[in-house]
Amino acid sequence: MNGRMGTIQVTTIVLAAVASGVLTRVLVPLLRRRSVVDTPNERTSHLVPTPRGGGLAVSLVILAAFAFPGGAGGGLAVPPLVYGAFGLLAMLGWLDDLYSVSVRIRLLGHALAVAAALFGLGALPVDLPAGAVSWLAWGVLFLGWIWFINLYNFMDGIDGITAVETLSICLGAVLVLLVADAGREPLFPLFVVAAAVAGFLVWNWHPAKIFLGDVGSVPLGFIVAWFLLSLIAHGAWAAALILPSYYAVDATLTLARRGLRGDKVWQPHREHFYQRAHQRGLSHAQVSSRILAANLCLIGLAVLSVRGYEGPALIGAAVVVAALLIHLQGRAGPTRA
After folding, report:
1. Counting C-beta atoms within 10 Å of the first and last residue's C-beta, which end of the chain has fewer, N or C?
2. Distance between the two ends of the chain, CA-based, in angstroms?
3. How much helix, strand and coil, in percent to the nearest 5, is found in the chain?
């Protein structure tokens, strides 16, 4: 990659942040006029009707930046099938924000997007024996990717939380790849997503003027999962487990608990650990800030893992996540309505 291309990429990253912030602000009154808003109810954590669908700005900016100037050859910054799958999920999410698409259609769209991305992947990110073991690994990867998309959507329930999580994972992955000496090529798409999310966060921090909506949280979950697979492909498998561990554990434990009770896990609720912390007295900003602090610890542990300390880093990550969950669950104070 020559210096000129590097300059173009840096310019693209800066423009992505600015464009995302400007487009998000433009969407606020437009979505209000179209009544694309989340109205407070017993299952939400906000107090005033707030526009949803701000992720449209984020997704459009990411798609534009991925297409131009892209990688070292000037093409797409991600594989074409990944690019197309991201666009498909953004479109499906936008339709869901506008018209409430059925669960079956959403899951079908998620499955098609993941299948296309896996087809474009061509090979597993780690070497495994051929035969039944390989097919089992593909199946686990397929289901795991779909689950990651949905847990990202489920966890997007208070101001700033998904933007903070995405920024943490993307910038953490950048540091991991730099320490692993993976070169600059895989860094550009990570910076693009981080920049687009940062521009949105200006309007999504508490008190939020606008929410991501499915048009933002679903494609972001998809592309973040692809980034984590890229880390595994570069040998940073432990870092790929550590960086998203809070989101993955909170969502999985909460949904498993609801499923065991016989609840419909896809229905909105307020049982995630971060939601319980808000109900017990913490503000949106305080909860998101605590998650950010934990994520900074996870980033440090992810970097440690690529220095040859995978075991201690994974143990440390388990301790950090457990401590955060206990803190969020056990926060004393008045319960919010």
Report:
1. C
2. 54
3. 70, 0, 30
Distance between CA atoms of residues 313 and 306, nearest Å: 9
pLDDT band at residue 258 under the 50/70/90 scheme = confident
- Mean pLDDT of the residues in the chain: 90
Positive/negative CA dihedral, 151, 157, 163, 168: negative
Give me the residue spans of the domains in the chain: 3-236
The residue written with tokens 């950090």 in the block is 320
Which ranges of 34-102 would DSSP assign to H, the alpha helix? 55-67, 80-99
In terms of Cβ atoms closer than 10 Å to its own Cβ (0-12, 13-18, 19+), residue 109 is buried
Pick the closest to residue 248 from 129, 110, 150, 337 (CA basis). Answer: 150
Q: Which two tokens stand for residue 66?
A: 């991925």
Confidence of residue 280 (pLDDT cuts 50, 70, 90): confident
pTM: predicted TM-score of the whole model, two decimal places = 0.92
The reported pLDDT for the residue numbered 132 is: 72
Angle subtended by helix axes 161-179 and 187-204, to nearest 10: 160
